[in-house]
Amino acid sequence: MRPFHLHRLRPPHALPHRHYSTQPPAIGIAPLPSRTTLSLTGPDTAKFLHGLCTSTLLETTGGYTAFLTAPGRIITDAFVFPRLIDGQYSAVIDVDAALADTLASHLRKHKLRSKIAFARGGWSVWATWGPGLALPTDTPTLLDPRLPALGARMLLPPGAEPALSLRHASEKDYTLSTLQHGLPPSSILPGLLPHEANLDHLSAIDFRKGCYVGQELTIRTQHTGVVRKRLLPVQLYRAGETPPEDLAYQPEFDAGGVEAGTDIVALGGGKRPAGRWLFGMGNVGLALCRLENMSDLRVSAEGGSWTPGDEFALKGSDLRVKAFVPDWLRERETARQRSKAERKAVDTQ
């Protein structure tokens, strides 16, 4: 079978490994049964959410956000839909079902005397992807702000289907469609720092907003820290094969069940792992990579050890790993480094 070439990514000059037998459509719509909803109602809803989430959620548009622990690590990411009930702002949080109880516990811990009420479920979550899609106006809809190609999220009553003339696909198709852009499923995010998960480049963090839980480390990392590790899309290939030049999904590739958390090591390199495998489908996946070891991105003054021709492998396996830097990440990280350098120059004048 010929490999299906995904969104082209510039080469850099957890969970069980899953197999998918079909290619995702370029444009589609899919139900997301792995997602559930948490609804917040009451006069203090807006103020309450503002103090817990990383982004500024406008009462008219909602958005993409994250909830953090006090030390600044991710509990989960989420999409927040604004709703008006009897003229009063309320919110519906679209969250990974496996993380919903953890998020609900986090919210209740901080409720104190806030006049809000919680409810779980009541909606099914759908997602569209692809360019130039018409969106429904008769159901809660939220444009996915992470990347333009990702389309929108929708809430529908359980059992209902959106009235859109698009090919109905599966949640597996949607997951692969997001993976081709280097975006992770929510399930691999808990415990990561927001910058490691690229949330700083995906409209999930407002660095100008006031205090929220986990803000201190997040702000310090943005303005003074060096982000050495980030999630990158990766491709597996076998020892002796030519390293891939472009990320290309091969559903028939048998990776033999790569476990989440498996270290990625440099062939002939030092003892310290260069990355950690987190998620995979067929021969492609996501790994937390040391940027200056596994790619040509430079994030520090001293630079890194990567050189063209370097090869990496899953520890204890003959499978090789090639990391790719998505164009959007390269562009946004370059802009971040430039902004930091300009601020530093101003501070030293």
- The coarse silhouette is globular
> How many domains make up the 3D coordinates?
2
CATH class of the largest domain: Alpha Beta
Stated plainly, the CATH topology of the largest domain is called Gyrase A, domain 2
Largest sheet: 6 strands, antiparallel, barrel
Query: In what order do the strands lie side by side in the largest sheet?
Result: 11-15-14-13-16-17
Number of H/I helices: 6
Radius of gyration: 21 Å
Query: Which structural class do you get from the secondary structure elements?
Result: alpha+beta
Averaged pLDDT = 88
> Spans with pLDDT under 50 lasting ≥5 residues?
1-21
Helix and strand element order: EEEHEEEHEEEEHHEEEEEHEEH
> Could you name the CATH homologous superfamily of the largest domain?
Probable tRNA modification gtpase trme, domain 1
Query: Span from first to last CA?
Result: 60 Å
Percent in strands? 25-35%
Helix percent band? 10-25%
How many β-strands, per DSSP? 17
CATH architecture descriptor of the largest domain: 2-Layer Sandwich
3D architecture notes:
This protein is of the alpha+beta class. It has two domains: 4-23 and 226-329, no CATH class; 29-168, Gyrase A, domain 2 (2-Layer Sandwich), CATH 3.30.1360. Helices cover 17% and strands 28% of the residues. The protein is built from six helices and 17 strands. The protein has helices at 45-50, 100-109, 171-179, 215-224, 291-294, 327-347, and strands spanning 4-5, 28-31, 35-41, 63-68, 74-85, 88-96, 117-120, 124-129, 141-143, 152-156, 229-238, 248-249, 263-266, 275-281, 284-290, 312-314, 319-323. A six-stranded antiparallel β-barrel has the order 11-15-14-13-16-17. Strands 4-5-6-3-7 form a five-stranded antiparallel β-sheet. The protein has a four-stranded antiparallel β-sheet with strand order 2-8-10-9, with helices on one face. Strand 5 and strand 6 (88-96) form a beta hairpin. Mean pLDDT is 88; it is low at 1-21.
